[in-house]
Each structure stands twice: as C-alpha cells, then as structure tokens.
Design a protein that fits this description.
single chain; alpha+beta; 5-stranded mixed sheet; 4-stranded mixed sheet; 14 helices; rod-shaped
Amino acid sequence: MWPARRVVGETFLSLALALSGVGAGLLDDENAAVAVGVGLLAGLLSLLRRGLPASVLLAAAAGSAPFFGFAPLLLVVAWSAGRRIDGLGRACGVFALAYGLALGLTAAWESHASLPLLAVAGMFILVAIVVPGLAGRYWSQRRTLTDTLHEYNAQLLRERAMIVGQARMLERQRIAQDMHDSLGHQLALIAVHTGALEVDRALTDQQREAVGVLREASVAAMHELRDVVGVLRDGADATPAAGAPQGGDDPGAPSRGVAGIDDLAETSRKAGTAVEIRRSGEVRPLATTADHAAYRVVQEGLTNAHKHAPGASISIGLRYEPDSLVVEVANGPVAAPSGVASGGQGLTGLAERARLVGGMVHAGPTADGGFRLAGVLPYTSPGDARKTFVAPQDDFRAQSPAGPGGEAGPVIEWNGLPKELARAVNRTKRGNGIAIGCGVAALIGVVLVIAVVVGVVFLVREADKAMIEPAQYEAVKIGQSERSVRDALPHGDSFMNTGPGAGAPPEPDGSTCLTLLSSEIGSSLDADPVFRFCFKDGKLIEKKSFEAT
C-alpha cells in the first residue's frame, strides 16, 4: 500500500500530465476530442510508469510522433525509466528502442520529411528521451550509494562504541581490583581496631559510643565498597531488584534507599549535629535506581554540611508529590566557615545519577546564609532501570535512520564490506557505477551542446533560404526580369518552405512561381503569411501576398 502522501502526489502528477497533454494537443491543432483522449491516456500511463517503466516509455515514445500531447509525458516517463530499469544493458536497449521508435514514426508521419528535418527531429527526441533518462539513472544511483554509505558509517560508529565499551569494562575491572586490594584492606583494619577499642574497659561510655560510630561507619563503607566493586567489575547496577535486601547478600547491611535515610540522620546525631526529618504526602514506592539516588542526595547533603558548616543544624525533607519525590537537605548558617576546599565532584556525579533516572538536582545558598541541596526524582525511571552506564539522550550518531533509535545492525566483519555496499561496488565494477554514468552523461552533454549549436546555425540558414522581409517584397516590381528577381530573393529550397499550402490563389496559366515565407507572424497560429512571385517568358508577371494554412 502506498502512503497517503505518495497517493496525493501521483494523483496530482497524473492530472497535471493529462491537462498538459490536452493543452499541447490543442496547440498542435488537433481535434478537441482527440486532444482530450490523448490527455486521458497520458494521465493513465503516468500511473503505470512505476510498475512498467520500460513499457510505458516505449508507449509514450511511439505516441509522441503522431500526437504532440504525449510530449510532457515523455519527459516524465524517461526520468522514471532511468531510475527503475535494472541493468545497464537492459536500460540502454530500452532507451535505444524508444529513440528509434520515436524517430522512425516521426519520419513516417511527416509528409514532407527530409534529411535536415529528420536531423533536427532526432536532436529534439534525443533531448526529450536520453537526457531525462541519464539524469534519473544518475540520481537513483547516487541516492542508493549515499544511503548505503550512511548505513555503513552508522555501523562503524556502533562498532567503535562497542570497542570503547569493552575498553571501559577492562578499565573498570582494573580499578575494581585496585580498590578491593587497597581500600578493602584498610577498611577491614579500621573495623577490627575500632571493634577492639569498643570493648576496652579503660574507655568511658562517651568514648565507646564514638568508637561504635566509627565502627559502624567502617562497616557501612565496606558494604559500599563491595557494591561499587561489583558495579565496576560486572558493568551493571549493583542495586538489588525490588524485594531483595537493600544491602546486598547480608541482611544486616544498612539500607541505601529512602528507608536508610533515618540511619544516616541518626549517625549524624551521634556525631553531635542536630538533624530533623520532615515528611509530607502519601508515601509511594520508587524504582530501584531512583530510590538509591534519593539516598545519595541525602548522603551528599549531610557530608557537605559536616565539611563546610560544622555544628549547624540540618533539616531533611521528603515530599511525595503526585509525580515525583522531592528530597531536600538544608543546613543553617555557620558563624565561622570551615575553610575545607571542595572539588565539586560529588554534586557533579549526583546530577548525572539523577539525570539517568529522569530527575534533576539543584544546589545553592539559602536566604538565611545556609545551603540547600534538592533533588526531584520520578517514581518510574525511563527505559531500563537496570542500566547504569548509558549515553546521553541527544547522542544519535550511531543510530541508523532505517530503524528505531539505538537498534543495532549486524556487526561489520573487517574482511569484507556490508552486503549492500558490496553489491553497489560490484555494480560499479560491472560498469553500472556512478563514474561510468557521469562519464556517459558528460559525453552526451557535450554532444548535445554541439548538436544544439549546429542545429541553431542550421535553422538560421534554412530560414534565410525560405523567408524574406516585407520590405524585400515591396522592392520587387512587376515587369522585372526573372533573373534579377531571383538574384535578389532567396531560392526557397528549404525544408521550412512547404509550398503555398491551403488557401493559396490559383497561379497564372503557363507561369512558374516562387513561394517564400514572410518573417512576420500570421493572424492566427495555423496561418502563415506567404509571398508568391510568378514568372512567364523571363519576366515577373505577378506577385501576391496572402496567408496559407
């Protein structure tokens, strides 16, 4: 089934060719019924040119000889046939047959056919058939090769992305191994030593409580390190699916979702900071990655508050909106800044994490001199929530226009080209490529330019042989000798001079007449002004001016 746009276009083109055929037929003095019939047939043939390009081209070439109404159709079907006839040999054969058919029927149809007339007709038929066919064929080959090269380039980009992804995975594995060997050992030592200090009887209760906080922090850091190492090593999000324990395989591990925010606040309270949690709205479950992002927003906000505003009060807000969860961490003003430098890497990573789940993060100072970190996280993450490392949404370089975005095609083997490109290259090697098409088109163009120049010169010379100005007619007087009159006028031996035509007055008895065309335009399209000079006994006995059809 054709799309609606193509149906409308084909219908409009068919009507345009039908009307053009009727108009061209009426200009050629054809009968009105014949002109309408030719126009209707031209419109019908235009609808068949896609399915039967060769047959429609031959029919239009044959019909253009007796009926001028097929001339507009011939240009269109020649272009279409050049695009759709497969094979260089078959296309050359069809176009040669169409050219010969049009020229042969033109010679048979014209009653006053001559060699110069056939030469001019052959030139115009060549322009009407061969030039549109070459243009259509070149356009089709260029478009096919361009589309194939676009697809080839898209496949190369996808393969390059795969290679980059593999290199990134290897680098992640190396980083994961280094983190496991170095940080894991140090955190284990911290946990062991803090556990030993916690049971030391020489410490006071307050000191034991502080050591307990350190031990819990080291244990939580070990769980975090294990999950990060899993992400780097496996290349997938280490956050568990819904229903699984939030801390990994260990049920006693701290939660890293919204449920673990209370533990974060309690840890900060044990460090001597006043932390308040405010909740509003109806609690709704979040996607796994969004739940983890909410935890990270609170964790980053508390970390920044402890670093840059020690001793300031902290408020945590969880506001459940109809479409998203708004997480806020704000700290009050501090009398003396801590002076700790900040690289901004934490907020940058947090913003990227929120973007991956379809949310956003905002950070900035408050009106009272404090600082506020807020995140807006949707309840449902876009796409596959299990994917952590994805490209930005506006990266369409490796997407093929032939299919949906991100749909990968077959991987290219380096020992050969893609099937479509290989076929195009093979066609080029067989002589059906763009280089040969351009060469042939250039050669035909040069020949046509030469033919047009020669044709224009030929027509001018033929017009000089067959036409005179009205002033020349007036200058000739009755009674002049035949020789002097013929020396002053063209001899009239031209294919353009077809005789007096219908409507000419009778010639004087026993006389010989010279008929020439006037350079002026007649009173109608089918009437030509004619000058006739009749001679008898070596003298001009009559000259007449009239219009003949």
